[in-house]
Amino acid sequence: MLISNEKYDVIIIGAGSIGLMTAYHFLKMGGKSVIVLEKGYLGCGSTGRCGGGIREQWGSPENIILAKKSIDIWEKLPKELEDDLEFHQGGYLILAFSEEEAETLKQNVHLQHKFGINSKILTPEEAKEIVPILNTSGIVLATYNKRDAKASPFRTLFALKKKIEEMGGKVLTHTEVIGFKVKGKEVKEVITTRGSLKANLVVNATGAWSKIIGKMLGENLPVEPYRHEIMVTERLSHLFDPMVISFSKGIYFQQMPRGEIIGGIGNPEEKPGFFIQPTSWFPYHFAKTLIEIAPALRHVRMLRHWTGYYEVTPDAKPIIDYSEVINNVIHATGFSGHGFMVSPMVGKIVAEMLLGKSPSIDIEPYSIRRFREGRIVRETGVVG
Amino acid sequence: MSLRIEDHPLLDFSDKRKKPVKFYFNDREYKGYEGEPIAVALYANGVKKLSESPVKHRSRGLFCAIGKCASCRVVVNGIPNIRACQEPVREGLKVRSSKGLEKLEIKESSPPRISRPEEIETEILIIGAGPAGAIAAIKAADMGAKVLLVDYASRIGGQLIKQTHKFFGWRKYYAGYRGIKIAKILEEEIRKRANIEVWLNSPVVGYYEGNIFAVLKDKRKIVYVKPKKVIIAPGAVERFAIFENNDLPGIMGAGGAQTLMNVWGVKPGERVLVVGSGNVGLIVSYQMAQAGIEVKAIVEALPYIGGYFVHAAKVRRLGIPILTKHTIIRAEGTESVKKAIIAEIDEKWRPIPGTEKEFIVDAIIVAVGMYPDTTLTRMMGITHKFVKELGGFVPLRKRTLETTREGVYIAGDVSCIEEASTALMEGIIAGINAAKSLGYNNPVLENEAQEAIKDLEKFRSGPRYAHIKRALENVII
Hints:
The complex is a heterodimer.
Chain A: E1 6-13, H1 17-28, E2 34-37, E3 53-54, H2 61-81, E4 92-96, H3 99-114, E5 120-122, H4 124-130, E6 141-145, E7 149-150, H5 153-166, E8 170-172, E9 177-183, E10 186-192, E11 195-204, H6 210-216, E12 224-235, E13 243-246, E14 251-255, E15 260-265, H7 281-293, E16 302-312, E17 319-322, E18 329-333, H8 339-354, H9 369-372
Parallel strand pairs in A: 1-2, 1-11, 2-8, 4-13, 11-18
Antiparallel strand pairs in A: 3-7, 4-6, 5-6, 9-10, 10-11, 12-15, 12-16, 13-14, 14-15, 17-18
Chain B: E1 20-25, E2 28-33, H1 38-44, E3 49-52, E4 59-61, E5 73-76, E6 79-83, E7 94-99, E8 118-127, H2 131-143, E9 147-150, H3 179-192, E10 196-199, E11 204-208, E12 212-217, E13 221-232, E14 236-238, E15 251-253, H4 254-263, E16 271-275, H5 279-290, E17 294-300, H6 309-317, E18 322-324, E19 326-332, E20 339-344, E21 357-360, E22 363-366, E23 370-372, H7 375-379, E24 384-387, E25 392-395, E26 408-410, H8 420-437, H9 443-459, H10 466-472
Helix pairs in contact in B: 2-3, 2-8, 4-5, 5-6, 8-9
């Protein structure tokens, strides 16, 4: 199907969780004409490859605020989208393996409490009550927050697309943006592999690929794609509820409602770039670390292993800002591996920006300017 | 009731029945033979239902018999999700059927030690030790190359080890021999060559950046293999027919039936219906009759018999009816199949009301064709094309059988669904060319590869294969 010269108020590039949540909120708040363009199939980018974790236990106000307000929305989403999204609040259990790490987690909890988050510090034995397969040796303490959650990335994307279409919006897959027609400081047309579209406003929600879109607009976004590897096991009956993570070991794993365990581990030697192939480094390091933490899982077989990208900024915090080069473009990117969990609130903020309303939270901390001005404090709570 | 074959005109199972063992299934004691898969021992004892599906709790049992599906999942000594067709029985083994999703009841307090997988290099890695892979190994080794031949099965020969009939074709491609004999010849030739290393029971389970293949050696330990050249010969996957209750225990593919019957000496049933009259359907029917099984009928949706006339004639001589323009519409039973309901179909393949017939059966064997097993070639990023006549998606290839990825060759059913003789020809071509690309030379063998290319052309020139020959032109690069 070719498209030509259709005109929309808003064109969103990228039908991952950020792009679709933006379109959904835009329509919900009264916006009329919106189209989301996706270069591949629905879920082909980072959302469809992610672990589906949702947490408000973060180490910086920027991420805590976004995550907390996102969970407020997540709790209502299954009803609004008429799909359970496999959304389940089973909590996150964060493990500390050294005094130093324990100190950082305590500080994080202290900070979280300031923002009204009900996270708790647990002894290793208390942690084992929540995750009975836990090997407590080496664990100094754990933090736990029952309100943290999980959801199915695919179910979420498909439910959003359905709802957006019911509300009069459009989602066009297999349509890649290859350029822009810019006049003065405004994008007039978005050029795609299927023809050109006219737009008043454009959102760059292309995650790992947002730097490429930025370049087409003459803007250098400080966002780099990093390959991350993840795996899924065979299905078991219910074994444990929370997502279990360790920042120092770089691992996260959780059991999904259908019974499979999903988990990943970050490779500290990974270089930025579009490397898509799985590596032989992952299965051994993941399995070894996993069974140190949960020895019984040695009897569970890994079924598949794949990769996806974290789009990483220098401080591992998002960019939600107007373009510094083009007047009618908004960037929502740089989520550094946790875009899915914060997508409801990000979608809401960007929709407010699109509708000319003032954003319901202060977006200054998410500005592009902060990198140039050197006002960056790195997020400590990144895993995977 | 025992389904064990005690007396077979061609096969002797005594070497597989050396040591009787007792084991337990759902707390009941059963007898089996050491080394045979749990599913086989249970099937021999008439136990067909092994698991229940997680959502609708439908009965499931032995289906593929070669570890490719999850239908025979059982709990073995407390460990869930064990494929009963792959796990051997041992004295005192405690087996339990899977009811939906299973618990992990085993408790482990301290982590076991695991070591980093060993990484090895080889000149040529050949994946699949069926006719294509086995002959490729022999020829590449004769050229001088160092070969590692891996297969998930426990024997060399692929599907040949289940074929008791004599093959047609040309003498130089082992025509006139039974499949089981060809497998033996190939195995002997491989064992003679010091530069072929063979890993059986060793499936390839991963492919990673840097051209690294993860092989689960002896089904126990991962070894990373980094080859200079690769020959991929994984064969084909069976298609399955869609009909009501096609998941009932006792319904299986022809491959599963042959594994049970010809490898382990256990009958798939006493009274059987066969779906599909291609060569596989005809041969499996004949083999079942040979093993003393009553084959009620063969149903074929097409208006004509799919397989060779010779095979059809043999089956007909035994009094087995072949019902063309018929299809199976339903199976009945709760824990295993008890009845098959078939009907005549019209020219649009719709069942004609009033033509239904019922057969009292305890097994239904489905033989409705195969498609190339391209799991690995697709994972490796090789370019594929859908060509119906070749069986589905197939890799693009040169006449030397090198794919769109340099140094990666294909041979056998993965390139096009054909027969053992063409698989052998392709194995010769791939094996010699892969070795040649490493710098090995041997004019006699190189000439043999040229001859094999010509023989393939000649073989496919007959009226039966003309459509394949034409279709192949779409995938030659």
